[in-house]
Design brief:
The chain is mostly beta strands and 421 residues long. It has helices at 6-9, 148-151, 236-250, 334-345, 351-361, and strands at 26-28, 76-78, 89-101, 115-122, 137-142, 160-170, 178-193, 196-203, 206-213, 234-235, 258-263, 268-274, 284-293, 297-304, 309-316, 329-331, 379-381, 399-401, 411-420. The chain is elongated, with a radius of gyration of 23 Å.
Length: 421
């Protein structure tokens, strides 16, 4: 089935254009879409959002203060709400000033792998998101969630960017700084030449609730709201401690806890892709796009020929259903885990031996536990890369494929907008 393209082929008519004359090549149609009120009337994020003691470090505190004194529950503490689940998603717009691939993350809470990083110089309307305000905003998305290779678009410095996602404090690196982590909507644009803009957009289908349970069957049981209130559902540090203590009692074969994933949802995404300025004398707008959407997601394009822009309005209805996801796990070798922990806390840490030492201080001989043997590394979530349909790197011929339920992304696509003489 193909959605109607007529809206995209008819120039918008109005006595006064809603698009600013100095518009960027990529921007939100409503640049004042964020309505953010911080708790207690605060003007900036609370540095105690991660912990009452802002010097505490996610996971690292377990090796410094012990398993009976845990304050930092979440790797990424929400700025606006008190818990990660159901926090509001915040929009940003800006320009990438640096982009790279992470070489080290806590894989226990990264079920889709290491992060793709981008530092964003925010447009003035979104500058409040940066904390401290003197730096660009750091953004991270797990690499197996973002199909940049199949879409033929790898973000780089100089790209315009729109994102919408979780506004958080990174609790892994005191002093805490704000991030957008993870973004659920990613949209990038760059000038291919002086007259042409190319853009790529994607809505990722899942993100972690930052809550974990030893029952892997609950990880992707999207219709089961009771899993979040389960007595064994805990933030990762507490789930790790619970797994260690359970191994002591039951002599478990492995340490394991699975992230409870939740489907991404949105009401409306409304953005513009525009040809570069200035408009050449006598040039007319030439635009094409190709998008793919699951059932329940609609996309309406609208051309503003005089301004050199195409507006895209995406909505998600009640009939949207996420693609089912089969739980997948893998070994996290002790030496790799220790290398990651050492990088996080900036000192050499042998995680397996540290756990054994902690148990020894508690009166247990951890060296004999099956789950703490060298050849019994912990099991972590390790989902494969999500896959688009073939041709995701194309922006023509004009097409919006709907009911594309053979692929997991709610929406993805590419756009080309150019001036032509």
């Amino acid at each position: 089935m193909r959605a109607s393209l007529l809206l995209g082929l008819v120039a918008a008519c109005s006595s006064k254009s809603p698009i600013a004359a100095d518009r960027p090549t990529l921007g939100w149609f409503d640049s004042n879409a964020n309505r953010v009120t911080l708790p207690g009337g605060a003007q900036v994020p609370d540095e105690h959002g991660c912990s009452a003691d802002p010097a505490r470090q996610y996971i690292g505190e377990l090796f410094r203060t012990g398993i009976n004194d845990v304050e930092v529950k979440y790797h990424w503490a929400p700025v606006v709400t008190s818990a990660p689940r159901n926090q509001p998603e915040i929009a940003l717009a800006g320009t990438i000033v640096g982009a790279d691939d992470s070489t080290d993350d806590v894989l226990g809470d990264h079920p889709f792998g290491l992060d793709i990083n981008a530092d964003v110089r925010l447009d003035p309307a979104y500058a409040f998101l940066a904390f401290p305000s003197v730096r660009p905003l750091h953004t991270e998305v797990e690499n197996r969630l973002f199909p940049r290779a199949s879409m033929g678009f790898t973000p780089q410095a100089g790209d315009r960017v729109l994102m919408k996602g979780a506004w958080v404090l990174d609790c892994g690196h005191p002093p805490y700084e704000s991030e957008l982590h993870p973004p659920s909507f990613l949209n990038y644009a760059r000038s291919q030449d002086s007259n042409t803009t190319v853009a790529a957009a994607v809505v990722v289908p899942y993100h972690s609730s930052l809550l974990f349970n030893p029952n892997a069957a609950l990880a992707t049981d999207f219709g089961n709201a009771a899993r979040f209130a389960n007595i064994d559902t805990k933030p990762f540090p507490e789930a790790l401690v619970a797994a260690i203590l359970h191994a002591v009692i039951s002599n478990d074969d492995r340490l394991q806890a699975s992230a409870l994933l939740v489907p991404v949802a949105f009401d409306k995404l409304d953005w513009l892709v525009c040809a570069p300025l200035p408009r050449p004398r006598g040039a007319a707008l030439d635009a094409s796009w190709r998008f793919t959407a699951r059932t329940g997601v609609t996309l309406a394009p609208q051309v503003y020929a005089a301004e050199g822009c195409v507006r895209f309005t995406a909505t998600m209805g009640a009939d949207y259903k996420p693609m089912a996801l089969t739980h997948v796990s893998a070994d996290w070798p002790w030496d790799q885990l220790s290398a990651s922990a050492s990088g996080q806390v900036s000192q050499a840490v042998d995680v397996r031996q540290e756990i054994i030492d902690i148990l020894t201080r508690q009166g247990f001989d951890g060296s004999k536990l099956s789950a703490l043997q060298l050849d019994h590394p912990p099991r972590i979530d390790a989902y494969p890369a999500l896959v688009t349909r073939p041709g995701a790197e194309q922006d023509s011929p004009l097409d919006i494929a709907t009911q594309a339920d053979d692929q997991p992304f709610p929406l993805y696509g590419r756009v080309r907008v150019a001036w032509k003489n």
